[in-house]
Amino acid sequence: MALLATHNLTAHYGDFQALFGVDIEINEAETIAIIGANGAGKTTLMRSISGVLRNAPQMVRLETAEIGSAPADEIMAQGVSMVPEGRKLFPSLTVEENLLIGTYGRKIDGHWTLETIYDLFPILKERRNSPGTALSGGQQQMVAIGRALMSNPRVLLCDEISLGLAPVVIKDIYKSIPKIKAAGASLIVVEQDIGQAMAVADRVYCMMEGRITLSGRPDELSRDDIHNAYFGAS
Ligand code: ATP
């Protein structure tokens, strides 16, 4: 059985329908990537899984539990945690205070503590008393990932963690993904950068206009397949 699955998931913003019957699944200890152009619906999918956008029942399942209509804090307590697009740190709080916010409502004991987050991102230990505003973009992204990990999630949702960062910083951040997986979490990584997604994912889903247009292992998808799924067949 999949660890997490969506079934015929739809989402609306008022009259506008952003997702049309999305089915994805993620297994234990798996990293999947969701790729797609601007506006394809990737963030909406993440927000639907994490409960920021509420769904009808039956649409999202975590093992045997239906979580589709649960509020976001309950979904987090059950083990699904999101690194939001744009990081969304508390700017006046220190690194350590931002990380500790991630333990709020935590019900799952596990690998992740301040100590293990600092092992993952040593620079955060050096900067633990600095306010969020004093950090570089890459460091802020590390705090956002660390904060989400502090709830000891079974599934970590990462929404465009490379956005706005320099290539060398992106590389650094992406190095943490196999370590997070090795510590027992499954990851859903939303990416516009196809190469980055392919390098890190066990499986990839491509979205276009609110639908999944392609899925498979990176080694079984051709460039043409991906191009067509990303932009539409020409
Ligand atoms: P991006 O890479 O730009 O973040 P995305 O693939 O994550 O794109 P979404 O942000 O999920 O796409 O947007 C999907 C569709 O829903 C787009 O057409 C977008 O304009 C629309 N949309 C997103 N958020 C809202 C909102 N709050 N109100 C109305 N429409 C929205």
UniProtKB/TrEMBL annotation:
GO MF annotation, one: ATP binding
InterPro entries for this protein: AAA+_ATPase, ABC_transporter-like_ATP-bd, ABC_transporter-like_CS, BCAA_Transport_ATP-bd_LivF, P-loop_NTPase
Keywords assigned by UniProt, alphabetized: Amino-acid transport, ATP-binding, Nucleotide-binding, Transport
All copies of domain ABC transporter, residue ranges: 4-234
Entry keyword ATP-binding: yes
SMART domains assigned to the protein according to its UniProt record, in alphabetical order: AAA
Signal peptide: none
Domain of life of the organism encoding this protein: Bacteria
A matching Pfam family: ABC_tran
Family: Belongs to the ABC transporter superfamily.
Protein name (Swiss-Prot/TrEMBL): ABC transporter ATP-binding protein
Taxonomic source organism: Cognatishimia coralii
